[in-house]
Write a structure and sequence with these properties.
This protein is globular. It has one domain. It starts with 12 loop residues before the first helix and ends in a 9-residue tail after the last helix. The chain is mostly helical and 79 residues long. It has 4 helices and no strands.
């Protein structure tokens, strides 16, 4: 079993700008994932991010892991 990443990798400036642009998304899933990734990139722990966004720490870790595997494709909800 693979360990779940608890922090997003350091983001390039272009990646930060792209995530900030996604904060204007009308899609709640995309908005929440963008918020999670930006908060993690700023050094916040999953438990803190979860408390601020009203979700579980597991959801935060899942978003961080999805970004590590899928990149920006993780911002779109899968069926």
């Amino acid at each position: 079993m693979r360990p779940i990443t608890t922090f997003v990798r350091p983001l390039a400036e272009e990646e930060k700008l792209r995530l900030k642009a996604e904060l204007r998304s009308s899609d709640a899933f995309t908005l929440r994932r963008s918020l999670i990734l930006l908060a993690s990139a700023s050094g916040q722990k999953p438990s803190v991010i979860a408390g601020n966004l009203g979700c579980t720490p597991a959801s935060v870790r899942n978003a961080i892991h999805a970004f590590a595997v899928e990149g920006f494709d993780c911002l779109k909800e899968k069926s």
